[in-house]
Amino acid sequence: MVRDERRFKMADKDGDLIATKEEFTAFLHPEEYDYMKDIVVQETMEDIDKNADGFIDLEEYIGDMYSHDGNADEPEWVKTEREQFVEFRDKNRDGKMDKEETKDWILPSDYDHAEAEARHLVYESDQDKDGKLTKEEIVDKYDLFVGSQATDFGEALVRHDEF
């Protein structure tokens, strides 16, 4: 409840305690709004920082993605994530990520969500790998498109005659 209230206050730009459509959308999808980015970082750190020291160390970082089962060797992707943490995430090399390092990790400035989603849809649907999607390829992967934010969760498929 405290978390939701804090997020709502941040989303409520005019402070009137009534959410406009944009403010409500910012509350639901804060990562899409520049003025909400700090709350995304704060919530992420609260979720992952298990020892509550205000930082994310390597074990907390890995523990958020992978739970070690007994004597089994770590999968290769976990080893890769460990390397990513040491080489790229922990920029000041102090063994933990602070707020800025966490922000760079979860909200990279050079990442375009729409482009990434479009590439994903084409990659998953383009059966003949010609870089173009036919009506048949889209219909074949209809569930993928209906679940995609790029198609407004399927609404764009209904509104456009060419689909």
CATH topology value of the largest domain? Recoverin, domain 1
Based on Cα principal axes, name the global outline: flat
Q: Total domains, how many?
A: 2
* Helix-strand pattern: HHHEHHEHHHHH
The major beta sheet can be summarized as:
2 strands, antiparallel
Strand segment tally:
2
Report helical residue fraction. 40-55%
Low-confidence stretches: none
Specify the CATH architecture of the largest domain.
Answer: Orthogonal Bundle
**How many DSSP H or I helices?**
10
Class inferred from helices and paired strands: mainly alpha
Strand content: under 5%
Average pLDDT, all residues: 87
| Level-1 CATH class name of the largest domain | Mainly Alpha
Q: Briefly, what is this?
A:
With 163 residues, the chain is mainly alpha-helical. It contains 10 helices and 2 strands.
